[in-house]
Specification:
With 149 residues, the protein is α+β, with helices and mostly antiparallel strands. It has one domain: Rieske [2Fe-2S] iron-sulphur domain (Rieske Iron-sulfur Protein), CATH 2.102.10. 13% of the residues lie in helices and 27% in strands. Strands 2-3-4-9 form a four-stranded antiparallel β-sheet, with no helix packed on it. It has a four-stranded antiparallel β-sheet with strand order 5-6-7-8, with no helix packed on it. Strands 1-11-10 form a three-stranded antiparallel β-sheet, with no helix packed on it. A hairpin with a 5-residue loop joins strand 3 and strand 4. The termini are far apart.
Length: 149
Amino acid sequence: MALSDCINRREFLITSAAATAGALVITGCGNGQFGPTGVNDAGPGGIPTDGPKLITVGDFPDLATTGRLVQVADLRAAKRLTATTFAAYSLICTHQQCAAGVQSGTQIVCPCHGSRFDASGNVVNGPATRPLATLNTSYDPATGILTVQ
């Protein structure tokens, strides 16, 4: 091999450093998939699979207001319908199962692609095309405990 075909030490170090930096970025950036990561404990239809959650209604002052949406547990939002009835929704976006969140007590927003849902889980704007999953609730007024499944 001719000497003119070789790279000098400076070029070698620059190339090596760039390759190392690129490898670190690739290995340090998640699970190797492009795009958002889905929620690990989502079952069919976007229903959380981590079991029922017992919610002390008094711990969430906004649940005193009828119709106000409140995030009450991981991946769950609820709203009071009447003095003794509640509705609850999964916070797993129906587009690509990203974890969404309650915004201003009136809507649910997915940070991955911008899907928005109203306080009843219906799609306001996509890319989601299906409403959020409705979860089962039961309320014990004597104890103030709301069970969301």
